[in-house]
Amino acid sequence: MALASGSRVGPYEIVSPAGAGGMGEVYRALDGRLHREIAIKILPPAFSADADRLRRFQQEAQAAAALNHPNILAVYDFGQHDGSPYIATELLEGETLRDRLRSGALPIRKATDYGLQITRGLAAAHEKGIVHRDLKPENIFVTRDGRVKILDFGLAKLTRLEESQSGDAPTMTARTDPGVVMGTVGYMSPEQVRGQAADHRSDIFSFGAILHEMLSGKRAFHGGTAVETMSAILKQDPLELSKTNRNIPPALERIVRHCLEKNPAERFQSAGDIAFDLESLASLSSASPVIRPMQRSRLSRMLIPVLAAILLVIAAFLLGRRTAVVTQPSFHRLTFQRGMLHGAFFSPDGHTVVYSASWNGNPRELYSTRAEFPESRQLGISQHSVFGISPTNELALGGTEGFETTLSKAPLAGGTPRAVLEHIHFATWGPDGQVTIVRVAGGRVHLEYPPGKFLYETAGYISHPRVSPKGDRIAFLDHPFWPDSRGSVALVDLNGHKQTLTQEYEDEEGVAWSPSGDEIWYTASPTGSHRSLYAVTTSGHQRLVFSVPGSVLLHDVAADGRVLLSSDETRIGVLGRRPGEAAERDLSWFEATLLNDISPDGQWLLVDEQGELGGANYSAGMRKLDGSPAVLLGEGDARSFSPDGKWVAAIRRGAHQQLLLLPTGAGEVRTVPTPGIEHYGFSVGLSPNGKLIFFSGSEPGHGMRTYVQELDGGKPRAIAPEGVEASAISPDGKYLVGSTGSGALSLYPLDGSTPRPLQGPPQGCDPIRWSADGGSLFIICSGVPAKIHKMIISSGKSELVRELMPADSAGVNAVFTAVMTPDAKTYAYGYIRRLETLYVVEGLK
Predict the structure, then answer these.
(1) How far apart are CA 90 and CA 95, in angstroms?
(2) How far is CA 1 from CA 20, 41, 106, 156, 555, in A?
(3) Which of the residue ranges 269-273, 309-313, 814-818 would you say has the lowest mean pLDDT?
(4) Residue 328: Cβ within 10 Å count
(5) Do 83 and 99 share a structural domain?
(6) Which residue has the higher pLDDT, 808 or 161?
(7) With 70 as the cut, is the pLDDT of residue 709 above it?
(8) Contact criterion met (CB below 8 Å) for 564 and 557
(9) Quick check: is 134 catalytic?
(10) 186 shares a domain with 42
(11) pTM of the model
């Protein structure tokens, strides 16, 4: 199918042909909506005739689109044009690795660099449960600036068996069941050759064959026919790299050998491990001189003086060890009170620091200080957080009405803030004096720069956007779930091209650009919540900058390299009280305990631990209100008790998210399949009769929605529009109460009929539970303190039931969740306490 210039494929305008291959024709095209050039691949019409193959292709294209890694081709869209499926991807300029290898082996340094990039991309895919299955030089692309991109995730399954006498023939079918051969012959793993089930370790074998070819210039396994090549894969070892007359480092040859083990259990078990070894080898090679063959004749004459010099260096080191001066970062403390910070930035002069804080339990205030005179003075602006300072000394401020706030501006010299935009989550200044914002629209979170120009959206949430010194890119933290702080560092340019630069961290907060603009600095924690300071280049190379036993948070980096950093002690805790008790009891588990539900008999709290001791995917547990030790239920994010108290609905996070039912006593964990749902949101619950489960999540192409599904089978069905999150089913099992992003409450009938808006609840408050008779709702208005109201559904009238606030209010940022029995006499609530100290740090590199 040849397409003329100017013709349209979906929303895209064809510019010119860009190539062709076995999987179809490729065109350069223009995405007019985001003003960027893209690539369109049109697949053969035969694909659309096979509904099952088309469905699988679409699922795999969507999976590839979800990867968002700098070493994987970005997939933007999928559709059909005149009966033929197509995919829209980023446009690459360069050549395939096969083209590079036509002239022979690559330099060792270049092969190591390409191998490192390939393994980083594979590690990201494998973490999401996606296996390529057809890795080969034709599917590796090298851009003009040396970036490696893995192509055709999801397409490998669709290539049919081609009859050929060549040992390089594609031999895949559209199925992936055990017993079906998949792969390109010269790069297939032994398990693929045998038709066995192949997991991510099959990709590792294929990578080993590619790395061997990059280093030797010859294919690792090659025969006169496909059968001979497959036999070599099963029975023979490739030619030793040391016999190719090249000075291959032994450590690099060991990496290749380890990848090419016939038994999957004896190979590297993760691509991340290979990347670590290659990076270590590359660092060692760059730091160590290489003795070339022409120098070997001089080696014996040089050996004695070199050894003598080494001994002298060692002796000098040992003698001077006690007097040697080691340069360490210097810390200048700026704050001396007890409480929490709400943003801190250097002013354009680089010496004044402006920050917002709530000290000693008092409302937040705006302050300024200087490192040489660390005495803070109030700026006369209360109840605001600072988002940033413009090049012309104008403050961007946020209010205190929760995660969704109003963006205001005020002069640094002082003055009343002027409201600019409502319903903002985050904002920051660009070097041109324009503002970039994060806000919700249509149930999804948008990044805009300037306001109104859409650059990126997600069903999760975006935090800490920072514009580069040149104003051409925006770094931000990309979080897959709300309100979970796990996520990765991402980058988007002004054309909307987004890159994911790092792996997913369990906790991340704080971003700033280095003065030169070649690195993005950020604070994150791979597990738990003890953050360290890291840096990542715009090409994805990461390094650790600074680590301490506690936790740090990055606020800003000055033009001269000084860093604005805070140390913090954060505790997410639970307090509760039963009737007759004089004071609230601490019912926290460890340092980050989230409260989710109370058992039907009012005896147990359902919690999950998301801190250091909770593990990467968290731990679900129960704890009695009498303060006895918690009972571990299993891995996952606990959400609600079943009506009979025998089960707990939970979410298992990680690469393969699952909806689970955990037994509270004896029994086996049950998995609840939710076909077609990409991920789960915050709410999960069971109906009063225990036959239905509701949850929030999203389907491809949609924002967050609420679904209901029968536990004994059936497909999920959406019962509310996008952006609505449900929290509880009525006692009669007929309604779900749900709230929109703006905080409006409605009753959504489970039979799919017209929703019923509720009148009367305060704006931005969330339902806790129904009353026993179903005539009222208990709702919580989060804040400091939080307020619980009982609202009569028929009239909308409400009464204040209780205010919730820890007795020690210093550093308490939010009281954000509560549970109670139907009579409201037994209750518990969750809070966040964060105590921070602000520093200017010099000497970090």
Answers:
(1) 14
(2) 11, 11, 37, 21, 54
(3) 309-313
(4) 7
(5) no
(6) 808
(7) yes
(8) yes
(9) yes
(10) no
(11) 0.52
